[in-house]
Amino acid sequence: METINIKIEGRIYAVDKTMSVLEAARSVGFNIPTLCYWNHGKNSLASCRVCLVEIASPRGSRLFASCVYPVADCPADKGFEIKISSPMATAARRASVELLLSNHSKDCQTCVKNGQCELLHVANVTGARSGQFEGDLTPTTYDDAAPGIIRDTSKCILCGRCIEKCKEAQGIGILGFEKRGFNTIVGPAENRSFADVPCIQCGQCIEVCPTGALSEHREIDKIDRAMAEGKHVVVQTAPAVRSALSEEFGYKIGEDDATGKMVAALHRLGFYRVFDTNFGADLTIMEEAQELINRITNKGVLPQITSCSPGWINYMEFFYRDIIPHISTCKSPHEMEGAIIKSYFAKAHDLDPKDIFVVSVMPCTAKKYEAGRPQNAAVEHLPDVDAVITTRELAVMIKRAGIVYKELPEEEFDQDLLGQYTGAGVIFGVTGGVMEAALRTAYHTLTGKEYGKIDFTEVRGLDAVKEAEIDIEGTKVKVAVTSGMKNAKPLLDEVRAGKSPYAFIEIMGCPGGCINGGGQPFVKPALLPNEDVNILDTYRQKRADVLYGIDKNMPIRQSHNNPDIKVLYDKYLGAPCSEEAEELLHTSYVDDRPVFAKK
Question: Do 61 and 55 form a contact (C-beta atoms < 8 A)?
């Protein structure tokens, strides 16, 4: 690392020469407030002007946006000094925030970002006062037509973080600055609804929004109505939820496995049964592994591509519908489990499926769209899943009920036909997990033996693309893993061109997998104390480590060894990919979904 000496508030510091002033200041103990800056400045538009500092030089003093101003341009030996707390700098930052407040909705009490709003945080830090600038407000667009995402431009501060995140994570660029001058807003082209553009509903834009301008479409009221109507309300929780739920209650990222307290909270919220979607993940592996083996042995269409991520499926139906024959027909785990609850579980308990209401707690906003797909209605044309809430929404329900999370005991999922799960199901929540779980079972299905190496570390990690090859008694199976559509596109182009060298490809919609889903707790750059700034580099890995730790300590780590799965096939489904399994657990895709719907 090449360093440069800079002067901040009268003292000399040696810092990385490639840093911006903001990054350098943070590295030596100053936390300059900012709103548009994120991802270590790679995506900063310098639009919010909240990070203004005074830089004095022999030619005089001027204000600069510290998030994009390079320290290489202000060396101490040339007479430059960075002033963060000078009257000029503090007044400028305060005025920038006051201007943002002047055009901002003030319904803080009912805002989904109440208590987590970065605008209010920087207002407090800078001493900004509301009402300093009065006048007309920019005309508002409120878009709640899409199942996963709501856009409210009255709360938008034009920071551009969502615009850059959509391009960085998915390579799509759904969002942009619309109109001009005072009427500028952020939205899809021509200010269309999210429902009318090829938005994959991943929610990554929500994760980086500093205010409540973007939020998930909450479904808590659906659950309230179902309980009031006396329905048997069954809840299931995705693997990734337990890796992050505790963050909503003051725990550090990666500090806590939330499983036991989460289950205890769900019991106290009055659910009829509390199940783990890991059972559905084990079931998915049984079906997906058999489907892969059928394709390999019968010279079917290869590579087979996973279908667990609804964000990825949305992307495929918009942009790569010609490769539908490559997509596994397996439903995602929570949809499979919903279908089993309304069939196998319902019959065992003499319940009418119409009286069962299935709730999925997911790390994902795209699951809300997935639950409404007509292809996912296996039992009496009822939806497999009736409501989807995010990790954040579950936290809202827990807080609303007055439950003291940190004082909850550790409780187990209900052991009622669908209670047991394996370590293979747990790791579905991280990129590479589906592949690793499938390989554990595919080897056994083909050979009748357990593969000696349970951990397929080659497909672990957060690299853009990971490759591995497994030798199944002479049959070489080459696989690939990726997450985020920007990373997936080169692999998909190979498939489209007929040049893919792989037999099996795992694709997840969100970078890092479900641990980084659009419904997970916010990682708040502006609110992090200085010593935790580097968490922005590592939070995905910290959440992933929680799941790998659970898997490592599980007594059963392969889906085919799940006792409840064995009973389900013996008593009800017959075998993986049987006629009954196909009817309940498999789905189909559309090849005529419009890229752009009509306005």
Answer: yes
